[in-house]
Amino acid sequence: MAEDLYGKHLAILERALAACRTRDSWSAFTDHVTPEARQAGAEAFQARLGRPFDLDQPGVPVPQEDEVSPYTGECLGVSYPAAGPGALMEAAARAWPAWRDAHPRTRVGVCLEICARIHARAAEFAAATMHTAGQSHGMSLAGSGSNALDRGVEAVAMAYAAMERVPERARWTREFGTAAVTLDKRYRVMPRGIAVVIACASFPAWNAYPAILASLATGNPVVLKPHPTSVLQMALAVGACREVLAENGFPPDLVTLAVDSAARPIARHLVGHPLTRIVDFTGSAAFGSWVEANAFPALAYTETSGVNAVLVDSLTEPGPVLRALAGSLCLFSAQMCTSPQNIYVPRRGVPTAGGLLTPEEFAYALGEAIKAISGVPRRAAAVLAAVQSPGTLTLLDQLRGQAAGRGKIVVEPEAYPHPEYPAARTSGPLLALVDVADHDLYGQERFGPAAFVITADDSGQALARAASDAAAHGAITAFAYSTREDFLDRAEDAYAVAGAAITSNLTGPMPLNFSAAYSDYHVTGLNPAGNASLTDDSFVTGRFRVTQSRRPAPR
What we know:
Helix content is about 45%, strand content about 20%. It has helices spanning about 1-10, 10-20, 35-50, 85-100, 105-120, 120-135, 135-165, 205-215, 230-245, 265-270, 285-295, 320-330, 360-375, 375-385, 390-405, 440, 460-475, 485-500, 535-540, and strands at about 60-65, 80, 170-175, 180-190, 195-200, 220-225, 255, 275-280, 300-305, 310, 340-345, 350, 355, 410, 430-435, 450-455, 475-480, 500-505, 545-550. Helix 16 (about 440) links the parallel strand 15 (about 430-435) and strand 16. Helix 3 (about 35-50) crosses helix 6 (about 120-135) and helix 12 packs across helix 13. The chain starts with a helix and ends with a strand.
């Protein structure tokens, strides 16, 4: 039963709490599966195609025509239960009391069991992620699998720690004149209410898992609305939640799936529903701003878009830096919120141990490093994977024309032939060389494999421009390369004020995009890239409040 799950997963909880305190490296999950498990996962995925997805929740099965595999170009044909926001909210409200009144440790145990169940089916979830989000199999197992689950466990641990700081009872005594008053006080952790989680298309699990689990752990029901083109992985997660809840005596409607279509979206109705008390949103800056402005009285937690920059001031050896940047520009076709876009170099050239590297030389050397990945189909398949949305290819075509009129096209955004899926929607990066004056071209996020090498008057101007864009338009991360400690210090100071993370002089096997659960704070909430952080106290403590009662102590 649920009471036993806390003890079952206590070792993981304690280790997660320790990792959050020390910010050390740790993971509860592996991102490797055996060939046999991969085959079984692929077969389980195939068995779901063209059939109704059984969730036994409010709604009738409706085919999801927007859900088309970026690898095969074919509609998955899965039917999901479609219900209006009102029916889902009412079901969540009916299910809530038992969960609201459960002890926090009981809820935490259930949440950790949900994570274990999802991980046990990692290969099936990975196949679903590949054919909806377009990620490679490796990234589906890691970034959208084990790493995303670690972010979920991290959120549960942070929620547990926050709730544990509230004592259940206290005896209080104070003198009033010549008499002493002694009261017995009781404190209750009370959840806010129904939470709406709105997931993105290309990387849904990364934000959805911590949002779902933070709300569940603190006692709130969850209505999960996936992007209409990327439903299956989220439906599988909802199914795992409902399964564990039901097995442990709780109403499964504590977690439901809200499916819509591109033609008939329902996100605004969910956000504005009178019963909504929490909204977690990941997606575009435009809709994120609307959520933040219109969610009240619900609390909104958002992660939107950003303009991530690279500052190249000076180098000892260009090769490792160029390879690191090329890998990051290619990784999942730059469809990640941490992908770099704007790469600044001094107009006079980049000082290196072998002499000055002109902006053109730097740009074309970076282009060759990119082609070493995008021009080798098997390597491109593992790194670039597929392009999630056809709209990304349209954007690339528009950007190519605009950049050609301003500067030079260094690398054309050409499709590569996927060795396993001939119909896969693919594209190598667009790399353009432009001037710092072309701000209207690079001064906003261009989602997908598009990057600009930007010639600035000097490194000071580049830093000022990049940090200003981060503060004004949002940025999650930045990267700096310099042999000068004073420049790196100034860059760190500027990005701290702009509210974004910065990584300096990183090369080698770790991808620049990697964000470590329990150690790296993902988003700060200090610039327009989002108002929430994975995972600090503010991400969990607003999801509950504390009520109290007082009685005179027995004499």
